[in-house]
Amino acid sequence: MLEIPKLLHEHATLPPGLPVIILIGGLLSGVFAWLSAWFLMRWFKSTEVTALRPFGIYCLLAGGAALAWHLLG
């Protein structure tokens, strides 16, 4: 969003068709970000805590390994 004014200001120096591609890319990325957030919220709501259990175990193991490496290394 912060770069849009720069793109509009430099519109004359951009290759033809690039502003349209930038606009379509921005719109599609926004739509797919919304869809993925919607899907993940529904999935986590339906599976509750069991969906995050593997990630929690990974965090504990990775944290323990990092702590051991720090203390022993």
Helix content: over 70%
Average pLDDT works out at 86
Q: What spatial form do the alpha-carbon principal axes imply?
A: elongated
Number of helices: 3
Q: Count the E strands.
A: 0
Question: What can you tell me about this protein's structure?
Answer:
The protein is mainly α and 73 residues long. The chain has one domain. Helix content is 77%, strand content 0%. The protein is built from 3 helices and no strands. The protein has helices at residues 4-9, 18-47, 53-72. The chain is elongated, with a radius of gyration of 22 Å.
Key terms for this structure?
3 helices; elongated; 77% helix
Task: Give a quick rundown of the structure.
The chain is mainly α.
Could you outline the blueprint of secondary structure elements for this entry?
Blueprint: H1 4-9, H2 18-47, H3 53-72
